């Protein structure tokens, strides 16, 4: 495959750098060059929107301001700080990586790309983001936003997940960041160019070149954009293999006994591992009797059982409806696996997002005696 056209690469860089200097959002992690802080932001931003991440990042940096603090924190603390962000493997890998940096690099964040890439939870994109943003190295990045921008700029109709197309996109991203790194300093914005260029691609994808209704008229690279010229930006990228959303039903039980409720920790290795939840099960049939399901899950008969809440949420492509009941039992049977926790202790535990809502609904319902 031919190398990217140098004139177009230069034109794109010349348009993107001043645009980013002018339009970049003032995000808290953009006010620092601390690789630890930038790394935390990058891990949080995977699968999560900027506005959601900001308060999480601020809380995290306040509680664990250094890499050493993150390495030494308890599992409960890191999960509580991450509670609600989802994809909890991210936070466990982040801590493992912090511990490795303390052990192998005396607590100093490594600068070499391969050393960064070798850390748990850090793939090619994140290593490129940290290398470029924190250390201004000309390492390319390619995430959903950048893929969208590049496939539109070059009208790339093939699926970006195909190996050849993916390689081509990485090559384009590399050409852009290298061109930026070799550009002379630009007054009045002598900012590090590799860092700015990569961030400009992400920013353009987030603010202007959005999945639906991109704002081509405001776009700094519109004169060089093939999809805009053809007036079909939304045709790119080709995501034809995306699986359709699938509905799933779950039933959960908040069991109360003597002012305490029964909670369980999700097991190692599964989705949301180490987070707390109420006993629950997936429902495969449209009509099931809650009392029967209770016996299946706990497994004893409930003394009382009443509807508590219905919570809808999504995990990846799954649209989940969680129907919850508030229950009491005649006694705490040893077969009821889990831990009994006082209602006022519930906010201290890291719950999955859906079960956190159940915890609030249960506390409200039990305390009001309804
Ligand atoms: Fe995206 Fe439109 Fe800009 Fe092209 S011109 S990069 S389609 S916003």
Summed up:
This protein is of the alpha+beta class and 370 residues long. It is built from 14 helices and seven strands. Strands 1, 2, 3, 4, 5, 6 and 7 form a seven-stranded mixed β-sheet that branches.
Distance between the termini: 69 Å
CATH class of the largest domain: Mainly Alpha
CATH architecture of the largest domain: Orthogonal Bundle
Specify the structural class. Answer: alpha+beta
Largest sheet: 7 strands, mixed
- Determine the number of helices (DSSP H or I, runs of at least 4 residues): 14
Order of helices and strands: HHHHHHHHHHHHEEEEHEEEH
CATH superfamily of the largest domain: Hypothetical protein, domain 2
Could you characterize what this model shows?
This protein has 370 residues and is of the alpha+beta class. The chain folds into two domains: 6-235, Orthogonal Bundle (Endonuclease III, domain 1); 246-368, Nucleoside Triphosphate Pyrophosphohydrolase. The protein has 14 helices and seven strands. The chain has helices at residues 6-23, 35-45, 50-63, 67-72, 75-82, 89-104, 113-117, 124-135, 144-153, 163-182, 193-207, 226-229, 290-297, 353-368; strands at 246-257, 260-265, 276-277, 280-283, 304-315, 318-328, 339-342. Strands 1, 2, 3, 4, 5, 6 and 7 form a seven-stranded mixed sheet that branches. Strand 5 (304-315) and strand 6 form a beta hairpin. Helix 1 (6-23) packs across helix 10 (163-182), helix 8 packs across helix 11 and helix 10 (163-182) crosses helix 11 (193-207). The longest helix is centred in the middle third of the chain and has 20 residues, at 163-182. The protein is elongated and about 75 Å long. The mean pLDDT is 92. Iron/sulfur cluster is lined by residues 149, 152-153, 208-209, 214, 216, 219, 221-222, 225, 227-228, 233.
């Amino acid at each position: 495959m031919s190398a990217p056209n140098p004139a177009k690469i230069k034109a794109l860089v010349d348009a993107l750098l001043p645009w980013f200097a002018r339009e970049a959002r003032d995000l808290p992690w953009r006010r620092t060059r601390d690789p630890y802080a930038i790394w935390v932001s990058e891990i949080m931003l995977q699968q999560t929107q900027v506005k959601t991440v900001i308060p999480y990042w601020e809380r995290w940096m306040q509680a664990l301001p250094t890499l050493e603090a993150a390495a030494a924190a308890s599992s409960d603390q890191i999960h509580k700080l991450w509670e609600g962000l989802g994809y909890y493997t991210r936070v466990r890998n982040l801590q493992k990586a912090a511990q490795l940096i303390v052990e192998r690099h005396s607590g100093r964040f490594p600068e070499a790309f391969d050393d960064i890439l070798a850390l748990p939870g850090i793939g090619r994109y994140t290593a490129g983001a940290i290398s470029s943003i924190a250390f201004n190295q000309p390492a390319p990045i390619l995430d959903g936003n950048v893929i969208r921008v590049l496939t539109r700029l070059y009208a790339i109709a093939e699926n970006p997940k195909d190996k050849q197309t993916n390689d081509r996109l990485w090559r384009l991203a590399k050409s852009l960041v290298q061109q930026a790194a070799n550009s002379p300093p630009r007054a009045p914005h002598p900012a590090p160019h590799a860092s700015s260029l990569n961030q400009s691609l992400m920013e353009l994808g987030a603010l202007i070149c959005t999945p639906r209704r991109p704002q081509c008229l405001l776009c700094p690279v519109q004169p060089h954009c093939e999809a805009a010229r053809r007036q079909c930006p939304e045709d790119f990228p080709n995501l034809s293999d995306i699986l359709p959303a699938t509905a799933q039903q779950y039933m959960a039980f908040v069991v109360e006994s003597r002012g305490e409720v029964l909670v369980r920790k999700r097991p190692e290795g599964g989705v949301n591992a180490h987070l707390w939840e109420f006993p629950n099960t997936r429902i495969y049939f449209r009509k099931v009797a809650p009392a029967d399901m209770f016996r299946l899950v706990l497994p004893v008969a409930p003394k009382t059982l009443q509807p508590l809440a219905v919570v809808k949420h999504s995990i990846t492509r799954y649209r989940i409806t969680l129907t919850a009941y508030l229950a009491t039992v005649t006694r705490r049977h040893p077969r009821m696996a889990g831990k009994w926790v006082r209602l006022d202790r519930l906010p201290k535990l890291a719950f999955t997002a859906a079960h956190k809502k159940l915890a609030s609904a249960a506390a409200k319902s039990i305390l009001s005696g309804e």
